[in-house]
Each structure stands twice: as structure tokens, then as C-alpha cells.
Amino acid sequence: MINQTHLVVVDDEPVARESLAAYLEREGFRVTMAEDIRGLRGVLEHQKVDLVLLDIRLPGQDGLSFLRELRSRSNLPVIFVTGRVDEIDRVLGLELGADDYVTKPFGHRELLARVRTLLRRTSESYRLEHNNLARHFAGWTLDLSQRCLTDAHGEDVRLTRGEFDILAALVRRPGQVLSRDALLDESVHRDGAPNDRTVDVLIARLRRKIETDPAIPRLIITEHGLGYRFVGPVH
């Protein structure tokens, strides 16, 4: 049976683009290719897209600036697939709201696993099955079914997918120390890198959004050498 899930592969290298697209098509996905952001825009304007595999270094507008623009209006799942290996690029990509980050060269099977994991986590059936409650803490409401955060006045506070996954993991287990590995397992950012800063980046962003003083956190506490812990009553 053909999988109707629609992926877009954006890469200016024809061999890499066509090889990845062919592999994903063999796995049953519907795949559209684009060589730059202009091509990607055309696809997004006229078709429903479920996930984008996006290179960073592209002719014309690069992937980072496009993601910044996209995140102002959409939570469309995006995985960066790039040859840029600098940690600053990885951190910036996550800061801008990328859902995952894979560096070249990579195995097609590994990337396929990441795609499937991200699609599973963003599917409506998964949300309803696993996230059917709301959590309330310090005037905040985290709606696990709608995947949204509201403040004491009922105003929505925008969270990226990674931020939401980390916060949801913490508030489900108040008082419990969760390691970075455990938090990575709750999100889609795992890449096995021992010095990965993904969780630290997401925690810092969450603190800026929910803490009265991010420099002196009262909700998400660092347990040095262990991980992070959510403190305070959650109901």
C-alpha cells in the first residue's frame, strides 16, 4: 500500500537529492524534490506537505533564514540534512525551531528512522492516544492534547515542537530528575553525539518563556551532572 505521507527533499546537489528521494519513495513515501527555497515555496503553496528535509547551504536564501520565516506562521516538521557540522549551526538550527538535525554523510536507514519518529510524534492519533490531559503549574496550562501552552490570562505562548516535548516530559514527572538522554528520548533530536547541546538549548529557551527570571529558575532546576528537574506543584 502506498504511503500518502508527503515529504519534500530540498538540496542543491542533484545526486544527493535524487538518491535520498529515490530511497524514500522505495519506502512508500510520496516525495517531491526542490533545489532551492524558491522551489520549496512553490510546493508549499500548492500542495499539502507533511515533512521537509532541508539543506542549510542553498543558493539564494539559505535554510536557516527560511526556517526563521516559516516558524513565524507554521509548525511544519523540518529536519535539517546538511554537510555543515559546526556546533554553532546545530544550536542555531534548534534555536530557530528545527525538529531534528542530521549531518552528511549519513545512512539512509538512520534518516528514515528519524523521519518515521517525527511523523509518529506529530500525528493526531499519537497525540490523542498519548497526550489526552492538561497540566497546570504556576499559573500556566500545558494542554497535552492540543500541544499548546497558555499563561494565567489565557494567552497562548508559542512553543516549538522540541520545546513542547521537553516541557511535557518534565511536567509529567514533577520532582523527578531526568537525564539529558531521557529528555532526548522524549523528543526527536537524538543523534548520539556525546556532547550534544540540544537539551540545554531547549531548556534555556523554555526558561525564557516560563520563568519569572530565567537567570534564577524556579520551575526547571539544573541538577549538575545529572540532568533537569521540574519543581513545584503540578495538577
Automatic annotation (TrEMBL):
Protein location: Cytoplasm
RNA-binding keyword on record: no
Highest taxon in the source lineage: Bacteria
SMART domains, per the entry: REC, Trans_reg_C
Biological process according to GO: regulation of DNA-templated transcription
Location of 4-aspartylphosphate modifications: 55
PROSITE patterns the record matches: OMPR_PHOB, RESPONSE_REGULATORY
Domain Response regulatory: start-end pairs: 6-119
Record keyword Cytoplasm present: yes
Pfam families: Response_reg, Trans_reg_C
GO cellular component: cytosol; protein-DNA complex
Spans through the membrane: none
UniProt KW keywords: Activator, Cytoplasm, DNA-binding, Phosphoprotein, Transcription, Transcription regulation, Two-component regulatory system
Name assigned to this protein: Regulatory protein VirG
Species per Swiss-Prot/TrEMBL record: Rhodopseudomonas palustris (strain BisB18)
